[in-house]
Amino acid sequence: MRRSIPPRENEEFPVRQVIIIGSGPAGYTAAIYAARAQLEPLVIASSVQAGGELMNTTEVENFPGFPEGVMGPDLMTKMQEQAERFGTEVVFDDVVSVELAGDVKKVTLGNGDTHEARTVIVATGSAYRKLGLESEEQFSGFGVSWCATCDGFFFREKTIAVVGGGDSAMEEANFLTRFADKVYVIHRKDTLRASKIMQQRAFDNPKIEFLWNKEVAQIFGDQQVRGITIKDTVDGTETTMDLDGLFIAIGNDPRTHLVHGQLDLTDDGTIAVDGRSSRTSLPGVFAAGDVVDPHYRQAVTAAASGTVAALDAEHFLAAANDGELIAAAV
Ligand SMILES: Cc1cc2nc3c(=O)[nH]c(=O)nc-3n(C[C@H](O)[C@H](O)[C@H](O)COP(=O)(O)OP(=O)(O)OC[C@H]3O[C@@H](n4cnc5c(N)ncnc54)[C@H](O)[C@@H]3O)c2cc1C
């Protein structure tokens, strides 16, 4: 027999229908759908990174509905407002631990509060690996990018560089030659990690030139990137070169540390979900956005994935409620 879960009246926080961890496009879209389904979601938005990755960029030109483009932070503010309009509660704190097994899930925040819910949607995104230079942050969205699909269009007839030696670096470099006049690939070794076919495609591309045994030591410019200093990894010598943009393609890490040991992960390090659904390895726990996506990682795909998670949570709760009614009747 299913156990009924009433609100715990004397406790500080009621047991929620749904808690959403993360406030990027996936988290806020899940919140919009859950709120409109009367589930009164609680979004734990993060203390310093609320709004997700698009807070780090300027113009977004590929999110549908904005023919003139939209600034990343403006888009995320609109998503937040849309979620709140339907009754979403947003808390600007970080989740420090979760207990996801069982009928009631526990979510503990940095301020010590523990919230409980019957379902949890994990929408914690993923982080592009960085070079670790201060100037990288300074020029993020102003010539430094981690996403050729997102930003390649801004570099028509420009000279740019891609950092990295794996498949995604080769893919980005090839893609960027559709726009740029010249694409340098900067790699710290003299051989690539990329598959042979991806390497060959890059070698055959007349717009791509490889700079072997080099790493980026500094990025400089004014409002925009104007060039970089590169350091030879063999003899340590430094040279500067003029550039209009720098794409960093050295990897991406799904933010899964909260759920390690609780949810199954894929070989790519993303949270494993069942087919096209958002169902994870634990009942009542759903995952959406870049944290489940090793390939597409776009705002609109994350938003769509948030929709799937909210609908899956809604169906799970409806089925659980039906089970409780049937159990009460027998
Ligand atoms: C510089 C840059 C520019 C981009 N430009 C474009 C573009 O032009 N077009 C496009 O379609 N895509 C673009 N992207 C990709 C796009 O931003 C992502 O695909 C999208 O944001 C993924 O959404 P998400 O909700 O899955 O994750 P995210 O946006 O990463 O959001 C995850 C959220 O979860 C929060 N979180 C993580 N851990 C915790 C925790 N423990 N507690 C509380 N909160 C937590 C994070 O702080 C963050 O707020 C860009 C990415 C970058 C980095």
UniProtKB/TrEMBL annotation:
One of its GO terms (molecular function) is thioredoxin-disulfide reductase (NADPH) activity. It comes from the Bacteria. Binds 1 FAD per subunit. Its EC number is 1.8.1.9. Keywords: Disulfide bond, FAD, Flavoprotein, NADP, Oxidoreductase, Redox-active center. The keyword Flavoprotein applies. GO terms for biological process: removal of superoxide radicals. GO terms for cellular component: cytoplasm. Residues 17-306 form the FAD/NAD(P)-binding domain. Its cofactor is FAD. InterPro entries: FAD/NAD-bd_sf, FAD/NAD-binding_dom, Ferredoxin-NADP_redctase_2, Pyr_nucl-diS_OxRdtase_2_AS, Thioredox_Rdtase. It is an enzyme of class 1 (oxidoreductase). It catalyses: [thioredoxin]-dithiol + NADP(+) = [thioredoxin]-disulfide + NADPH + H(+). PROSITE patterns: PYRIDINE_REDOX_2. Homodimer. Belongs to the class-II pyridine nucleotide-disulfide oxidoreductase family. This is Thioredoxin reductase.
